[in-house]
What we know:
By secondary structure, the protein is an alpha/beta fold. It has helices spanning 3-10, 19-31, 35-39, 51-65, 72-80, 85-88, 91-101, 108-137, 142-156, 169-173, 204-217, 240-251, 273-286, 296-299, 308-325, and strands at residues 182-184, 188-189, 193-198, 231-235, 261-265, 290-294, 328-334, 344-346, 351-354. It is built from 15 helices and nine strands. The strands form two sheets. The protein has a seven-stranded mixed β-sheet with strand order 5-4-6-7-3-9-8. The chain has a two-stranded antiparallel ribbon with strand order 1-2. Helix 2 (19-31) packs parallel to helix 4 (51-65). It is globular and about 75 Å long.
Amino acid sequence: xxxxxxxxxxxxQSYPNNIEAEQAVLGAILIDxxxxxxxxxxxxxxxxxxxxxxxIFDAMIDLNNKxxxxxxxxxxxYLKSKGNLLKEVGESSYLTYLTELVPTxxxxxxxxxxxxxxxxxxxxxxxxxxxxHRLRSGSISSEQAGEQVMKAISRNRSSSDxxxxxxxxxxxxxxxxxxxxFLIADLIPTSCLLILAxxxxxxxxxxxxxxxxxxxxxxxxxxxxxxxxxxxxVSTEDGVVRLNKRIWKMLGNPDKYEPDFHFxxxxxxxxxxxxxxxxxxxxxxxxxxxxxxxxxxxxIRGRDLNSGEDMNVVLRPLQNICKQTGTxxxxxxxxxxxxxxxxxxxxxxxxxxxx
Length: 355
């Protein structure tokens, strides 16, 4: 089966699925075999929607169980030895295509979680479809249908899938107060995902650029100590000319400075897995102390800013990058509703700075 046919079959959206996440999981394993140990704790082959992906994942598990390294060559040989299996999954060209989708395996477990979510949704759809038919035919009572619904929901929230670890008091608090490291003292912590939010035209982008330049140069701001480090500034709204003008106004003569500062000016849609993985790769290579992403609305194009699920498609992988690399990521967001929670509130990432 050719890659075009595989992609055509993938488009079938009759039940909830996330084909891109399935492809990202398989590609991540081909890049880094060790990821399969974490992934099998989250999903099984039955959680994949696409049949080709089910077969590829089963093959990977079998190779891993036999302690055979998982890569393009070993997977190709395995599938080829199983009769028509290689042809059924799309030939070697599709296997290669999977590795090209994800340049890094950094977010493999997150993609597996996305696959699991859609698998649970499909299970509920199947249960509801069956109950609809049985209720219409009169072969089940409403009470029995209700019980089946509760069982289906319980399956998706099975306590066997929950791992709750408890820590005693002395283990949590320790013997002394922990110190928090800041890039800008008492303002910008390290290893943290931050949202800088404010109404339109309040100067959020300008403030973020000021923070970035202070860190890039290692110069104090508002009498606050600054840790010098590399900066990656991603601007999807302000162009070269505007950024150039702002930097000249801030520094007077930028030519005399040589900060470890890099820009990406232009489109950066992080809801596209390829773009997200490309950014992750750059962060791993460059190892900046600060990454600025401006603004959030352009990073999640086509998604709903009021949807937690849509927001987490981008923000959760960014949070994982912060934890694993020690990088601080500052995301700019515009809001229009009045904030009544004060100047700073706690949210699911770390905290938000409101202007």
